[in-house]
């Protein structure tokens, strides 16, 4: 799950970047509202963690611009402003949740997972598909009652496909969701991960739509 961090405080940004990586996310980080807007127009993200007090374009203005463009991207507001008026303004401008700095990274990760579940129309913390069960919080996968060891990238790919059950995701979409900036992507990386998932779980689990991409079909 690729997350955009929008935070101008260097120390906090570094901490969020490291903490979300440890929690299994693929975070990228920008330091002002204009850079965030440009990133959101050119890349695919699963959610954003957004500071309100940003240079060049405020978090409130960025939210308004996003929602005016009909973006449904889940946005968690992270701000030092604990006055209720600022929180209300952020939520009314299109924010989906908020936390006040300093924040607990485990709670931040949990709130992001909840936002992603709700945006996918699945409020349950456990994703299930036939004999497959995926627990995003514990980063655990079970198939037919047995635990299955997956690499971090395999887990992320499976999670994306399960969140979008019934929808075909292109290779470009999956690469954008799984790989942050600056990380080289092999031309056949997605195909290799799909092959490993089929071998570890079930050959028929992930369906190839030729010339388009991959999907897990609804049951």
Automatic annotation (TrEMBL):
InterPro entries: CheY-like_superfamily (IPR011006), OmpR/PhoB-type_DNA-bd (IPR001867), Sig_transdc_resp-reg_receiver (IPR001789), WalR-like (IPR039420), WH-like_DNA-bd_sf (IPR036388)
Residues of the DNA-binding region: 124-218
Subcellular location per the Swiss-Prot or TrEMBL entry: Cytoplasm
Any one Gene Ontology molecular-function term assigned to this protein's record: transcription cis-regulatory region binding
Annotated organism of origin: Georgfuchsia toluolica
Domain of life: Bacteria
Transmembrane stretches, start-end: none
Protein name: DNA-binding response regulator in two-component regulatory system with QseC
Lineage: Bacteria, Pseudomonadati, Pseudomonadota, Betaproteobacteria, Nitrosomonadales
């Amino acid at each position: 799950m690729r997350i955009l961090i929008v935070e101008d405080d260097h120390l906090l940004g570094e901490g969020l970047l490291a903490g979300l990586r440890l929690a299994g996310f693929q975070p990228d980080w920008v330091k002002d509202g204009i850079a965030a807007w440009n990133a959101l127009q050119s890349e695919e993200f699963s959610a954003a963690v957004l500071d309100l007090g940003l240079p060049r374009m405020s978090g409130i203005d960025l939210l308004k611009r996003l929602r005016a463009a009909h973006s449904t991207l889940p946005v968690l507001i992270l701000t030092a402003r604990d006055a209720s008026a600022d929180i209300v303004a952020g939520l009314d401008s299109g924010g989906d949740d908020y936390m006040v700095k300093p924040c607990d990274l485990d709670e931040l990760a949990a709130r992001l997972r909840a936002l992603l579940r709700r945006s996918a129309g699945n409020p349950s913390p456990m994703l299930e598909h036939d004999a497959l069960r995926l627990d995003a919080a514990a980063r655990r996968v079970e198939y037919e009652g047995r635990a299955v060891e997956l690499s971090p990238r395999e887990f992320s790919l499976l999670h994306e496909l399960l969140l979008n059950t019934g929808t075909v995701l292109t290779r470009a979409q999956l690469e954008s969701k799984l790989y942050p900036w600056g990380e080289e992507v092999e031309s056949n990386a997605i195909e290799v991960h799909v092959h490993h998932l089929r071998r570890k779980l079930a050959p028929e689990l992930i369906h190839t739509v030729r010339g388009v991409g991959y999907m897990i079909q609804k049951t």
